[in-house]
Amino acid sequence: MAHEQQLELGIQTPTAAQSPWLRLRDYWWPAPTLLYDRVMLWLSLALLGFSLIMVTSASFPVGERLTDNPFYFMIRHSLYLLLGLGLLAITVQVPMQWWYRASGYLLLGAIGGLLVVLLIGHEVNGAKRWLKFGPLTLQAAEIAKLCFVVYMASYLTRRFDQVQENLQGFLKPLFVFLVFAALLLLQPDFGSMVVMVCIVTGMLFLAGARLWQFFALLMGFALLLTLLIIKEPYRMRRVVSFLDPWQDPFGSGYQLTQSLMAFGRGHWFGEGLGNSIQKLQYLPEAHTDFIMAVVGEELGFSGILMVLIVVFAIIFRAMQLGRKSLHQGQQFNGFIAYGVAIWFAFQAMVNIGAAAGLLPTKGLTLPLISYGGTSLLISCITVGLLLRVDYELRLATMRVAPLSQGGRS
After folding, report:
1. Predicted local distance difference test score (pLDDT) of residue 11
2. Which of 81, 233, 283, 321 could make a disulfide contact with 337, Cβ separation 3.0–4.6 Å?
3. What is the pTM of this model?
4. Predicted local distance difference test score (pLDDT) of residue 258
5. Is residue 89 part of a domain?
6. Which domain holds residue 219?
7. Reduced 3-state DSSP string for the chain
């Protein structure tokens, strides 16, 4: 009797004869009666736990040198991690309709934050990117990325037909982007601007912009980025050093050569957790921008491969979530999922590619892994957004989809 009731409710019960492959499939694509994406949640928590371990390992030397406390960065990262998990739990409770209604205010708040940074921001290495609030340090550009994704999703939902049919609807979000780009370049923060270029380009393409508009946009952005690189000597040095870092291994190519040596020492299975040599004051920013070099040295190619699999599994599920939400008619939710997927994919690709010498150094953190308070907090909020989008999709699916045998629709 109980089994029949479970079938009527669409609940799938495992059987002893079920193969491991079927159990894995059912875990990856669970029955629609489960009201959250447990795979995405566990993958995200795994990366956050891995982040704490690797930041602790990579930051021992610099923490002892700067503060006489080797656990300094681990303690700060732990506090931000706890705060981030709290924000994730809160974000899951907030309906997506609230984000849709607040998108305009979030956009104005992000622009205001970037303006405030230019006026009273904390300067490090010639760049004004941070706001200090007692022990907390916030990077306005990270908050701006989230607000920009929410704005783009809201705009594409409201002006979906205009984006596809006329040039004016296509150009409006580009003017908003140019405001963000100008404020970011004044800091300067070229890396965050490039991330926003990818977000706006990718989201407009997924919204169905005409191909000639899309390719014209790509060519325009490529020309703009080329001119910005040529204009600033330090950006040009980064590109030149990326092409041949060994030409000046103790100057412009120093950071990349040290990173490559870390990858080389790691081989297949690494030197063992905590046994990195390059983090001992040889590799700058070992716990932030170049944390994957430490992962490669201590855990080897196998460690790098596992991180890549988990990161891109989250991105893949976010893309799936966006597609399903659009098919269900939840346009805002779908564009949010697509925007986050594009953002995470590009930033992960640039961070890992720069550490491995495949791309020029951009100073971008690896979402959910690198040390960086604001980056970690915003990454947790975006995971909460994805879980909320998935939750609302499942609710809608349960209401309208007929139940099939075995509980799968």
Report:
1. 45
2. 321
3. 0.85
4. 87
5. yes
6. 37-395
7. CHHHHHHHHCCCCCCCCCCHHHHHHHHHCCCCCCCCCHHHHHHHHHHHHHHHHHHHHHHHHHHHHHHCCCCHHHHHHHHHHHHHHHHHHHHHHCCHHHHHHHHHHHHHHHHHHHHHHHHHCEEECCEEEEEEECCEEEEHHHHHHHHHHHHHHHHHHHCHHHHHHCHHHHHHHHHHHHHHHHHHHHCCCHHHHHHHHHHHHHHHHHCCCCHHHHHHHHHHHHHHHHHHHHHCHHHHHHHHHHHCHHHCCCCCCHHHHHHHHHHHHHCCCCCCCCCCCCCCCCCCCCCCCCHHHHHHHHHHHHHHHHHHHHHHHHHHHHHHHHHHHHHCCCHHHHHHHHHHHHHHHHHHHHHHHHHCCCCCCCCCCCCCCCCCHHHHHHHHHHHHHHHHHHHHHHHHHHHHCCCCHHHCC
| In a domain? residue 8 | no
Contact partners, residue 102, CB within 8 Å, separation at least 6? 150
Cα separation, 128 vs 229, in Å, equals 19
b or e along 324-357 (b: 16 or more beta carbons within 10 Å of the residue's beta carbon)?
bbbebebbbbbbbbbbbbbbbbbbbbbbbbbbbb
CA angle, 170 then 174 then 180, to 5°: 160
Residue 5 domain-assigned? no
Half-sphere exposure of 401 (CA within 13 A, CB side): 19
State the number of CA atoms in the 13 A half-sphere of 140 facing the CB: 33
Domain tally, the chain: 1
Within a domain: residue 246?
yes
- Mean pLDDT per 10-residue interval, the chain, length 409 residues: 44 54 65 75 94 90 85 90 95 94 93 89 72 78 93 91 81 89 85 88 85 78 79 72 74 82 87 86 81 91 93 93 92 95 92 84 83 89 95 80 45
3-state DSSP of 285-296:
CCCCCCHHHHHH
- Here the tokens at position 235 are 């950006």
State phi, psi for 328 to the nearest 5 degrees: -85, -5
